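does this look right to u?? FE2/S2 (inorganic) cluster version
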Amino acid sequence: MSETESLDSEQPSADLSRRRLLLGTTSVVGAVGVAAAAWPFLASLRPSARARIIGAPVEVFIGNLEPGQLARVQWRGQTIGIMRRTERMLQQLPELNPRLRDPESAVADQQPDYARNLHRSIRPEILVLNVHCTHLGCVPQVIPEIGAQPFDSDWRGGFFCPCHRSTFDLAGRVYSGVPAVRNLLVPPHSFVGDDHVIIGVDPEGAS
Ligand code: FES
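got this back:
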């Protein structure tokens, strides 16, 4: 038996800029819904708790996700980031290739086949990423702005892991010469209409 539930109480946080991130500011991105298999004892739990335990797909409304904004949701105990990248962000991805360890995402199992492309996404502008560092699992900071950083004098925007200073670009591709050796993982996901992403479900016809 299955059921569909609304998780209006679960609100992912969003990082608009490094400053806001440092200040710990969060904003509401949208309502989240899940479709989950029924389980007797789970009926007594709040919907969000049930979704986390079961690992059910999580549906995220992205209609109000601003350009450059990153929303975070939880899926199967992992933090999933959803970013609406700007045209500028997309344009510079190929420019970064020489600085990356695996710019073509050649290492297996880093993303589904449908996201094995330059943008590492189904829609170029919408990035869906497991934002746990592939070194030892910390959650990196997102620093989308271009400009010198203490850890990179030619920072082009991306993710910085403060645990051991691994860096990733805005497609989750790992830089060369950092502790992490794999790109950030792209989870299975698909779209329903223009404004909803379902984390945990492949697109129709994809394996
Ligand atoms: S956990 Fe991210 S660099 Fe080590």
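Residues 1-45 have pLDDT under 50 and may be disordered. idk if thats expected tbh
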